[in-house]
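Sequence only, no structure available. Ideas?
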Amino acid sequence: MAAKPAVVTRVVDSMTDNLRPTRAEATDVANAVLDGSDAILLGAETLRGLYPVETISIVGKICAEAEKVSNQDLHFKKTVKYVGEPMTHLESIASSAVRAAIKVKASVIICFTSSGRAARLIAKYRPTMPVISVVVPLLKTNQLCWTFTGAFEARQSLIVRGLFPTLADPRHPAESTGGTNESILKVALDHGKASGVIKPHDRIVVFQKVGDAYVVKIIELED
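Reply:
I predicted one. Tokens follow.
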């Protein structure tokens, strides 16, 4: 609810020595997903366990089955109610982007960001579709050398459930003054097509800051 990553650990301890988890442990993994956890951390099961590969496979399958029955619409309503009114500008647009994506049955939400905050806010509302976070690097200097930021922000986003970060070309600004930058959008679309989440004729919701305003766009792909 607070848009902070929630990581659950110590869920299948018996798999350190056994090939299958107990029923209680399997239920714990499923409940972790249904309760909205972002990640499940395996410890002794993969560090010194006898069946590390099988443990990852079984936990992954349980998570996938739990995702199929997760009531994400209810989670969305609970989150909106928890945030309350009045919402901040960014919070309002982020929740609207998720609502629009659900209504038009979009296959993916694309979010342009520099810090990753906007993408985390969108993922907080648990949309039923993946969120591609396009992190645009920023050029900074300490008067001795120039460096690009963005890789750290993209890596941090990996822990957030449903968020798939990618780095854009640093030569293009994240906050365009003339609408969505076509070259950055193409990077995101190519990333989505390569991962199999975007197909021809799909609808896509694009979230971007244009000048001082946040904009939500709905586009439909051609062949």
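The beta strands are 7-9, 39-41, 108-113, 131-135, 138-141, 146-149, 163-167, 203-210, 213-220.
Hope that gets you unstuck.
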